[in-house]
Write a structure and sequence with these properties.
It contains 14 helices and 10 strands. It has 387 residues and is of the alpha+beta class. It has a 3-stranded antiparallel β-sheet, covered by helices on one side. The protein has a 3-stranded antiparallel β-sheet with strand order 6-7-8. Strands 4-5 form a two-stranded antiparallel ribbon.
Length: 387
């Protein structure tokens, strides 16, 4: 049984060709029309996929893959191909297709999910697709068992060097989609409910005040790209913001009252309105780059490690069961974490840090402050009690 996407042999009046899913079953050929039509020059005939010059090719290829898998699944489960409709609509029997549908619904506003949350679900979808490709078989709902849990963990640890907390984050999203699919009566497999998920915060690195100053004063003018990355990081630190918020800061967010400058903006993730005093160093960074701090989070994470290695932030540390130089663990989010911890160390009350950074609960904020406990031990070593 071979199932693959092809173009219809005859063009439509628009000059495009209808995309079909064709398969051969028990010596007979079948064809199902899909929602797509495409120019021949935009079609990869050999692989049955949209070329990179086709509009929205990445998303359409994902949807097409899910549809082909769905048709395969229906046939493998014994459904008579003659009973399949002429217009193909996927019967979701696999996890990846269901993930994709819920992400698409969120992107068009059909589900109240924050942009950053959608990104996280897309990351998990990508991991599942890679795992599925490795296993060379779709992830049917009834296969999401303890064996899948163990195998997926091994895959992430071996191929992507994942720690347990990263794995738990992906499993938490898998459980959410499985629950939604169960509510929709797409499966009756409840084994996923027993998947172990820990919510304890991992030990994440932060930069102390000395390291922040070290980063601030180091001359990076010979490396303009690294210099701007350092500036993005410091801007997030000085404003207690997530990367997604700091790169969107514009002059329109600036206000001044009684000679004091503030930034006033709505946090993308929580939609909460915050107001933060504009530190002179932060204003200098914004003016230096003409209030244009846009960038890519993924690229920034890679460049920040290079920046911190160059600056000399290389103390040996542990993070999520892994040891290495601190520079290897620094990410864009390290800035926000560092600001919270350093403000707390300076004596600022938790409720004030919460208001400035837009944290919604003390519990969430304390997962950040938890990471300062080893620094506390270092300071306590000089206390008379321990002498």
């Amino acid at each position: 049984m071979n199932t693959k996407a092809y173009l219809h042999s005859r063009a439509l009046s628009s000059g495009e060709y209808r995309v079909q899913i064709r398969y051969r079953f028990a010596g007979e050929n079948f064809a199902l029309n899909t929602e797509w039509s495409v120019k021949a020059s935009h079609w990869d005939k050999e692989n049955g996929r949209f070329k990179s010059n086709a509009p929205d090719y990445k998303m359409n290829n994902r949807k097409l893959d899910a549809l082909v898998l769905s048709v395969k699944a229906r046939l493998e489960r014994g459904e008579n191909p003659a009973n399949l409709p002429k217009d193909a609509k996927p019967l979701e029997v696999d996890l990846v297709a269901c993930f994709l549908r819920h992400i698409q619904a969120a992107e068009i506003g059909a589900k109240d999910i924050a942009g950053s949350t959608i990104k996280n679900y897309k990351v998990t979808l990508g991991k599942l697709e890679k795992y599925q490709a490795t296993k060379q078989m779709p992830l049917y709902f009834d296969q999401i068992t303890q064996d899948f849990y163990t195998s997926f963990l091994a895959h992430l640890k071996q191929s992507e060097k994942f720690g347990m907390q990263g794995f738990y984050n992906h499993i938490r999203r898998v459980k959410t989609i499985m629950k939604l699919a169960e509510i929709e009566k797409l499966h009756s497999n409840n084994e996923y409910r027993h998947f172990k998920v820990k919510r304890s915060a991992p030990d994440k690195v932060y930069l102390n005040e000395g390291e922040i100053e070290q980063l601030h004063t180091f001359d990076l003018s010979a490396w303009p790209k690294l210099e701007k990355e350092r500036d993005r990081f410091l801007l997030s630190y000085y404003t207690l913001t997530r990367y997604s918020d700091s790169v969107q800061l514009k002059r329109s967010h600036l206000l001044e009252e009684k000679g004091v400058k503030y930034l006033r903006f709505k946090i993308q993730k929580t939609k909460r309105l915050v107001r933060i005093p504009l530190k002179p160093e932060a204003e200098k960074i914004l003016e230096k780059h003409q209030w244009d701090m846009e960038g890519s989070n993924q690229k920034s994470n890679a460049l920040l490690k290079e920046v911190c290695r160059l600056v000399g932030i290389t103390t040996k540390v542990w993070e999520d069961e892994t040891e290495g130089p601190k520079c290897d663990f620094v990410t864009t989010h390290t800035a926000r974490r560092s600001a919270a911890i350093n403000l707390s160390s300076q004596g600022m009350p938790e409720n004030e840090i919460m208001d400035l950074g837009g944290w919604e609960s003390r519990e969430v904020l304390r997962t950040y402050l938890k990471n300062a406990r080893f620094e506390t031990a270092t300071r306590a070593a000089n206390h008379p009690f321990f002498q």
